[in-house]
Amino acid sequence: MSVKVISVLENILQANDQIAAENRARLDAAGVYAINLMSAPGAGKTALIEQTLRALTPQVRIGMINGDTTAASMDAERGAQAGAMAVHINTGGNCHLEAHMVRQALSALDLSTLDLLIVENVGNLVCPAGWDLGTHARVMIASVTEGDDKPYKYPSMYRAADVLILNKIDLLPYLQFNLDYYLRGVRLLKPEIQVFQVSCRTGEGISAWIDWLRECVSSKRLT
Ligand code: MG
Ligand code: ZN
Predict the structure, then answer these.
(1) Which CATH architecture has domain 8-222?
(2) Would you write out the chain's pLDDT as a tens digit for each of its 223 residues?
């Protein structure tokens, strides 16, 4: 019986990967660089998006897709206020985004007017890792307030991430957070991961992340 369950899940994931590849082809054809932002709730996804929009607009034209488990669209509204073209996805209680949801949202955006697409995944440290959405990079945001043991407890997320943004580093002096222990765990899981240590509150470290992102966007632009 268990074999059947696994094959059903494999079919679902295969179908997802197929749609993700189509999403990516669509973004490539339009010259849009896309990132999938994943994190636990409260790690600072929306704050990072606001910092990013502030730094890159209007030179970089940015679209946003915000996944939430409910119809509450305040994250999308915060993005729109900061200058992005934003689409809210209500996942209907689903705890992660899937490629078909992003496909629908892509149709609501005019990709020809965009350079960068930020997909804000549902706040969840487990299953977003398993679902390719068709973006070009998976960016995980972690916060030092979550504790230095997180790579050891949620390995699949760290393995899936191409980039790690460690947020709220301004709080390090007040926490029992062993940065070496944390980073050792991260690099064990993903030796080639790109790490940015930032504080969205003070702005520390943000410029290195912005430079990296700007470089990715210009490499994807149609020439
Ligand atoms: Mg948010
Ligand atoms: Zn889920």
Answers:
(1) 3-Layer(aba) Sandwich (3.40)
(2) 556 666 777 888 899 999 999 999 999 999 999 999 999 988 998 889 989 999 999 999 999 999 888 877 777 787 777 777 888 988 888 999 999 999 999 999 999 999 999 999 999 988 999 999 999 999 999 999 999 999 999 999 999 999 999 999 999 999 999 999 999 999 999 999 999 999 999 999 999 999 999 999 999 987 6
Which ligand sits closest to the CA of 43? Answer: 1
Cα–Cα distance measured from residue 37 to residue 6, given in angstroms and rounded to the nearest whole number: 27
For ligand 1, the distance from its centroid to the CA atom of residue 11, given in whole angstroms, is 31
Alpha helix ranges (H) inside 72-134: 74-81, 99-107
Look up tokens 């990709």; give the residue. 111
The pTM is what? 0.92
What are the structural domain ranges in the chain?
8-222
Ion ligand 1: residue ranges with CB closer than 5 A: 45-46, 75
What type of residue sits at position 2?
S
Evaluate whether 46 touches 119 at the Cβ level (below 8 Å): no
